[in-house]
Amino acid sequence: MRRFFSFLIYLTASFFIFDTAAQRPRLYASADGLVSGQINDLYQDRQGYLWIATEDGLYRFDGMDFTAFRHRSGDETSISANNAITFLEDAGDRNGWGRPAA
After folding, report:
1. Where does the chain show beta strands of DSSP type E?
2. Tens of pLDDT along 9-62?
3. Model pTM above 0.90
4. What pLDDT sits at residue 83?
5. Cβ–Cβ < 8 Å for 53, 39
6. Radius of gyration (Cα) for the chain, nearest Å?
7. Which residues pair with 30 in a beta bridge?
């Protein structure tokens, strides 16, 4: 009987210790900064960022926020096209590249 009560106390405590709410999947939408609904590729780089190639540019997710990288006409430092189909990472320089659709 004593073991049974010990087990019940352990089981009850485990619900508080091992909170499963933090492990539930979360749905991200345009209000969170991920504007495009079409995802062409996902890639996690060496620094832990999640890169998302979409029809509306590249997005970088740091676990909290999205940063959008889009083509800006006349800006040579922006990506060449918004329709990114994949993401590649350079092994030497650790530069990321979004490959636009042909």
Report:
1. 39-44, 50-54, 57-61, 66-69, 84-89, 96-100
2. 665 656 556 655 556 777 888 888 888 778 888 888 888 899 888 888 888 999
3. no
4. 79
5. yes
6. 21
7. none
Q: How far is it, in rounded angstroms, from Cα 101 to Cα 95?
A: 19
- Please tell me the distance from the alpha carbon of residue 42 to that of residue 52, in angstroms, as a whole number: 5
**What is the SS3 assignment for 4?**
helix
Write out the two tokens for 56. Answer: 């509306």
d(CA 48, CA 58): 16
pLDDT of residue 66: 92
Residue 96: what residue type? G
75: its two tokens: 């800006």
Q: Per the structure block, which two tokens stand in for 59?
A: 């997005």
CB under 8 Å, gap of 24 or more: what pairs does 49-54 form?
Answer: 51/87, 51/96, 51/98, 53/84, 53/85, 53/86, 53/87, 53/98, 53/99, 54/84
